[in-house]
Specification:
- The chain is globular.
- It is mainly α and 272 residues long.
- It contains ten helices and no strands.
- It starts with a helix and ends with a helix.
- The chain binds zinc ion.
- The site of zinc ion has 8 residues, from loops.
């Protein structure tokens, strides 16, 4: 069943990459067909099959033979991987409630993925997409609080340490993460970290219980700093800003996957 989500993810990834590309170029999201950026040839249906078209055409445009960026197959595979992982974690085919949780995180990951690509290209963040996540996050908090449904819990052990009232369980993560990043933003005077990153961690926090938010913080800052260090060793330039949203995306992914593994191990430990 989950393999179906992998294949769907390939198509969805092609769409997400397209949205990020049009965000950068300022083209309309819906009205125009995709075309080759070099020769402007409109792509036919058989040139639009994710991954397969790229492999059949050996990575070249059918119109002008120019090389197609590796970014296309890479974004398709990455999206397929996170869609597949979310399907494995939430098992949306089992019942309606599992489907709802799956959709919340699926849209969170999709939008953060678009913002990560956009940040990587431009070092900017798009407020319309953040606003969408902010409202989705509020619905997420309201849904769990009002219907008394427990929040998804990825690191059982760590979340157990923080008992908060239901409406605060993820709101508190948002406030904690954004204050921390705002503090870093202030002391570094906006170099290396932008205000867009502060807003982004706020909306991500809305979807994470506090223990999970701590794991997210550790993963994304470790990966981001590692990247910054490599960049520094290569270019000897400390002032070069780092696109942080790609690391938020990776941090979020590792939090869900590793948290899930840890909590499963922990549950095995106490049941035997
Ligand atoms: Zn072309």
């Amino acid at each position: 069943m989950a393999i179906f989500f992998f294949i769907f993810g390939l198509f969805w990834g092609s769409f997400l990459n397209n949205v990020a590309y049009r965000l950068k170029t300022g083209e309309s999201f819906f009205l125009t067909r995709s075309h080759c950026p070099i020769c402007k040839k409109t792509l036919s249906v058989k040139e639009l099959i994710p991954l397969i078209s790229f492999l059949i055409q050996k990575g070249r445009c059918l119109g002008c033979q120019s090389k197609i960026s590796l970014r296309y197959p890479l974004t398709e595979i990455l999206t397929a991987i996170f869609t597949f992982t979310l399907a494995l974690i939430f098992k949306p085919w089992i019942n309606f409630f599992f489907l709802i949780e799956f959709l919340f995180y699926f849209f969170l990951f999709s939008v953060i993925f678009i913002l990560a690509l956009y940040d990587f290209d431009t070092l900017l963040v798009d407020d319309r997409f953040l606003l969408f996540l902010f409202f989705l996050g509020l619905i997420f908090v309201f849904y769990h609080t009002y219907l008394k449904i427990p929040y998804p819990d990825f690191s059982y052990l760590l979340n157990y340490l923080f008992i908060l009232p239901p409406y605060l369980e993820t709101l508190f993560s948002s406030i904690f993460l954004s204050f921390l990043f705002f503090f870093i933003y202030l002391i570094t005077k906006g170099e290396g970290l932008g205000f867009g990153d502060v807003k982004t961690v706020f909306v991500i926090g809305l979807f994470l219980k506090f223990g999970d938010a701590l794991i997210f913080l550790v993963f994304s800052s470790l990966l981001g700093s590692l990247y910054g260090l490599i960049l520094f060793l290569k270019e000897k330039n400390l002032k070069k800003p780092i696109p942080f949203i790609p690391f938020f995306f990776l941090g979020l992914y590792f939090t869900l996957v590793l948290g899930k593994t840890f909590s499963a191990k922990y549950l095995n430990l106490i049941s035997f």
